[in-house]
Structure formats: C-alpha cells, structure tokens
C-alpha cells in the first residue's frame, strides 16, 4: 500500500515526528535484533538438568554446587510463578470490582494452592538456605507424615496406633 501525501500541516508535522521516533527503533530491530535471532532460537539461557542433591556423593563438591544452583534457579522460577498468579488475582479483583468474590474465586484458589505448595517446599528455611536444607526439610516432613499423618490434621492418638482402644 503506497503512502499517501499528508493533507495539511498538522498531518505533516505528525508524520515527521513519527518518522523521527520510529526510524531508530526500526533500525535497531532490523540491524541488531533480527540478525541475532537467526543465530539463537531463544533468548533465555536453557540449563541442562543436573543430578539433585540426594543423587550426589558426599565427597563431590562440584555436584553439590550444581545441585545448589539448580535449586536456586527452580526457586526463582517458582517464586515468579507465584508472583504472576498473585498479579492475575489482583488484576481480576480490580477489573471485576463489586463482583470479584464470585468471578475471581478460581484465581484465588489457584494462588492459595500454589502459595501453600511454595511454602511447603521453601518456607521456614531461613535467609541462607541451600538445596541440602530443602532436602532435609522434605525428608523430615515425610517422616512426620509417616508417623503422625498429614501435617495440619493433628497428631495420631496412641490408641489409634495400637488399635486396641485401651
């Protein structure tokens, strides 16, 4: 479609300003971004999955380091997912103002489930934690659940374990 000639001075000024602002962006896109896209099919660095901390030997510091870096990356991803879910719920409550309780309940349920899962995995570890601390937390939680039932359901009574009620 050929460009048409501006009809009056206002259109000419607007067209000139538009061209001045658009030209550098088009140049960067055509000369920098698009040639680099041909070499790299993605922008984000993709890391290979490494053995987790429970698969490392006790005398292998390189494996410990890799497992810890993978744990930190996974934690950042999980935190960002939780942030996105929170933002979706907040946007929904703002958009659906008086009726947000019914219309945004599914988003709130998703966010609360994700927050509970995040806290189960990463919560109460302190400021300076690593993959080993998270693994130990998971191990202790599994032992607790085996002995006492799911966390939050209350402890089993002694009579329930024996089964005789005496």
TrEMBL record:
Organism: Ignelater luminosus
UniProt KW Cell inner membrane keyword: no
Family affiliation: Belongs to the complex I NDUFB10 subunit family.
Major subcellular site: mitochondrion
One term under GO cellular component: respiratory chain complex I
Keywords, comma-separated and alphabetical: Electron transport, Membrane, Mitochondrion, Mitochondrion inner membrane, Respiratory chain, Transport
Organism taxonomic ancestry: Eukaryota, Metazoa, Ecdysozoa, Arthropoda, Hexapoda
Annotated PANTHER family: NADH DEHYDROGENASE [UBIQUINONE] 1 BETA SUBCOMPLEX SUBUNIT 10, NADH-UBIQUINONE OXIDOREDUCTASE PDSW SUBUNIT
InterPro entries: NADH_UbQ_OxRdtase_su10, NDUFB10
UniProt subcellular location: Mitochondrion inner membrane
Mode of membrane association: Peripheral membrane protein
Protein name: NADH dehydrogenase [ubiquinone] 1 beta subcomplex subunit 10
Pfam families: NDUFB10
Presence of the UniProt keyword Oxidoreductase in the record: no
